[in-house]
Design a protein that fits this description.
The chain is mainly β. It is built from 4 helices and 17 strands. It is 13% helix and 43% strand. Pfam families: SUFBD_core.
Amino acid sequence: MAEAQNIPVGSNTTGSIAVAAESTVATRMSAEPSFDVADFPVPHGREEEWRFTPLERLRGLHDGSAEASGSLKTEVSAPEGVTVETVGRDDPRIGRAGKPVDRVSAQAFNSFEKAAVVTVAKEAVLSEPIRVSLHGEGGVSYGHTVFEVGAFAEAVLVLDHTGDNVRAANVEYVLGDGAKLTVVSVQDWDDTAVHCSQHNALVGRDARFKSVVVTFGGDLVRLQPQVNYAGPGGEAELYGLYFTDNGQHQEHRLLVDHDSPNCRSNVAYKGALQGAEAHAVWIGDVLIRAAAEGTDTYELNRNLVLTDGARVDSVPNLEIETGEIVGAGHASATGRFDDEQLFYLMARGITEREARRLVVRGFFAELVQQIGLPDVEERLIAKIEAELEASV
């Protein structure tokens, strides 16, 4: 078993590693996952899973007072081999990938009227990505979307969130055996938006799931990616990039539940923060159950603080219930610009302003390249440049 890995001197590392002990992951939840809102008490902010979240900024999503009154314009562009349906709550495909893990997700599950089901046919290899644009037009909205990828099919999905909305939603990704799915979820909301969403992925036998979560906009964004395996040999890669500005709260809470043998997961999230009261939260939970022999997993979170007044909470957790694994580890680091890097660049005639820009671009470059779509990558680089204009 690999030991938890600490980042070099000067970094902030917080986390835990447990072997066959009381469930680290279970203690992070006040209730068992459930579709019933009544199974989750109204949070008061002292619970483990809510202690970092400013509840007053959720606009009533957590206590049931937020009634659906808004509008969210949705546009779907799908190539041949993809079926898009609008279904009722009783459709058996809804809820297969996992249950809500908190009151907001349960509220979203019980508040949507119609769900969207997007299906990629068995063995289809899409030549173009599926693009889903969600543009908020004010008010409160709830939603549920299921993306099913048939056995041995391959697809790329881009979810683009813009506009103003108070939004709570659940998104499901169901991968058949041998399927491959890459998801890019971009949160580029207006400054007044609130977005809470649980992303459940069920990865089939020998299937490969890659998620790239990019968060820029919104007053408060709280996302919860969850991964489970439906059979041995599955792979999950979870990447994230966030740029937290003055006054913003951005929270990413991940859980990878290794419950099948010979599966792999890799998590890498990076964030940059600037401005007073900018607050980023990253929680990375990985559970390796007793039946998950042959697991190989690693999780990483790194944060770059650009100005005074910003705050980061980074908590990796790794629980292992079997010693028969390939490897497991985690790392977390938070720090400012490396003075040696700046000195090196400035000594070669580069201005301090440009040197800082280059360091930040280099910090994010590896994750941006994971997207694999030039138009999306160029847009995100341009967004990072625009954010940096405010700080350098």
